[in-house]
Each structure stands twice: as structure tokens, then as C-alpha cells.
Amino acid sequence: MQNFSFYNPTRIVFGRGAIGRLAELIPAEARVLLTYGGGSIKRNGVYDQVMAALEGRIAAEFGGIEPNPHYETCMEAVEVCRRLGIDFLLAVGGGSVLDGTKFIAAAARFEGVDPWSIVVERAPIREALPLGSVLTLPATGSESNMNAVITRVNVNQKRAFSSEHVIPRFAILDPETTFSLPPRQTQNGIVDAFVHVMEQYMTYPAHAPLQDRQAEGILLTLIEEGPKAIVNPSDYDARANIMWCATQALNHLIGCGVPQDWSSHMIGHELTALYGVDHGQSLAVVLPSVLRHQRAKKAEKLLQYGQRVWGISEGDETARIDAAIDKTEAFFRSLGVKTKLAEYGIVEGIEAVGQRIEERGAVLGEHNDIDRTEVDAILEACR
Predict the structure, then answer these.
(1) Spatial distance between the Cα atoms of 291 and 277, rounded to a whole number of angstroms
(2) Residue 202: which domain range?
(3) Is residue 5 part of a domain?
(4) Which of 33, 134, 183, 196 has the smallest set of CB atoms within 10 Å of its CB?
(5) Of 155, 177, 199, which residue constitutes the final position of a domain?
(6) In what order do the strands lie in the sheet with 58-62?
(7) Do residues 12 and 144 lie in contact, with contact meaning Cβ atoms separated by under 8 Å?
(8) pTM higher than 0.85
(9) Alpha-carbon distance 383 to 39, whole Å?
């Protein structure tokens, strides 16, 4: 097992009626900015619950944070924070709202000239506005980690940043807030959580059996519970288990002391930036191809995964690895998520993905050996 440092101070408040506890979680004297996305929280009753819990507080709101939050929109919110003297942010929504709010928190206190340098140059974040969250779309794990992904439209870039200063102080997880999610968002969320686990688990043995078993438990639960939520969106137990899995998938615990990959995410981010494919959709396309391309280097873990997660024990090693990857792709398709680029109308120009990765000087994978040539080959197999 590798050395590691683990820090996660997010308080999780889970279950029915948890939004009512907002008043005790946010400092009484705080000037709060409520951030959200396209307005679904006003249609499903979440907004009303939040405002009732904040009654008597000084609170403003900023809506319109996009899926794949835009830098330009976030900077508008930064100006609101400065103008109104905001000192606490409350993100109400899914991972995009949370990611955007994390950037707002960092940019509002950033001392440098250009806040975009936080993302593209890893400019140090020395402080940020405190933030909390009310999660309505389980997927990214952003409610309980230090990561965020931001898109800058005018240069067509989608980039990630990370800082302990933007870890949410608390996360309210009420599964009932997810009942009204469109099927596509539920599907994407399950895929996203599943691939988060795979990026940390599907590498090579690191003598970390606890982390392996934790990862496998999340995968098995998503496989069992995911289809239930697709068939019956109001299944509280299924929604609760998916929500908790998504948080556990990327709160950094299962990644302690083990090698990590993240090539599927890096390639997927470029597909989203270039073609507008949903993040979860891009992962369902890319992960199976990454596994097939890297099968020799991931063989031991692929065999373990096949046996422990999919119950594959018959046949030689080649057949078992094939079956494990095929089962993974079939699971995504069973949720209603397509797994080929052509199914999204992407038939030309995919070499631009590898070119953009090469221009950044990035080399992907747990062995740092997936360069532009390998990215091109992976995407070619995704057609």
C-alpha cells in the first residue's frame, strides 16, 4: 500500500427531512448566497424547503449555473458575492452546481490577477468562501470532496482543479429530492459513480484488500440498485443507496494508498468540451475501450473484478477478461446509456481529443504511459 494523507471534514446529513437542519448548519450571522442551476429546484419543492429553513437569514440567490459550469457564469456570481458581502455559499443541485460554487468560493477570495489561473495553472488557493450543499443529483461526489471541473466557453476548455479550501462544510443528502430527476440524469449519475470507483480500483494490485473490498461493494450496490431506480424512480431505498454510493465513490476514501487511473475521465472531458456529450455518457463510451486497450497492464485486477463483481470464474484468463469488460459495457447499456461514439453522431474529428491532450503535455493512466497515440487508438475503438 502506498503512503497517503486523508482529510475529509464534510458533515453528511442524510435522510428524509434533512433540509430542515440547514438552520443549525449555517452560521446564524452569515450572509448567504444560494446557488442553483436551471430552476428544477423551484419545480420539485426543494427551493421552498431551503427557503423555509433559511427564514430570517440574510440570503440572496444566483441561478443559471450550467451543466458543465461555465467560468463566465461563475465570475458573474463572484461579482455578486463581492457586491453583497457574501460570506457563505449554499449550493443546491447536482455536481455541476457544486463544482461551479467551489470555483466561485475560490475566485471570490483569489488574490491573483486572473482567476482562470486557478484551473489552468494550478495557482495556489490560500482561502475560499465557506460552502455547504443540498444535493439533488447524486453522481460526482462533489458534495464531499475537494475537486471541481469548470468549462471556459470562449476557449472551449474543460479543466479540473482541487483544493482543501473548497471542501463543503456539510452536505445534506435527502433521497426524496432525486425522485423527480429525468431518467437521463439518473442514468448518467449511476454511470459517473461507477466509473469513479473504477478509476481508483481498476489499476494493478497494491496490497490494499480493504480498499478493494470497499470499491467492489460500491460497484455491486450500483449494479443491484441502479436498475431499480430506473424502473421505479420513487423507490426510496434504491435512491438512498445510489446517493450514498455516489458520495462514497469519490470522497477520496477508497483511493487511499492505491494507484489511480483517471484516463477515462480526461478523455471524456474532452469529448464533452468538443461535442457536448453528457459527462456520464462520455464515460460509458470511453471506459470499456480503455479497459480493452489496457487489458494486459490491468489483467490482475480485471480478473479479480470479473470474479468478485460479476461472478466470472469459468474459462481461461483471456475469456474471463473479455467477459468482465463486456459485462461492464452491457451494464451501461442496460441503464439506457449508449456506449459508442456513432450513437451520439460523432463520426469525424475525434483525433482532436488526443491533440488537445498532447498540447497540454498530459500523459494519462496509472503508469503515465497513455499518450496521444494511445488516446487515438482508444477512441478509434469507441466508434
Answers:
(1) 21
(2) 183-380
(3) no
(4) 183
(5) 177
(6) 11-14, 170-173, 131-137, 88-94, 31-35, 58-62
(7) yes
(8) yes
(9) 35
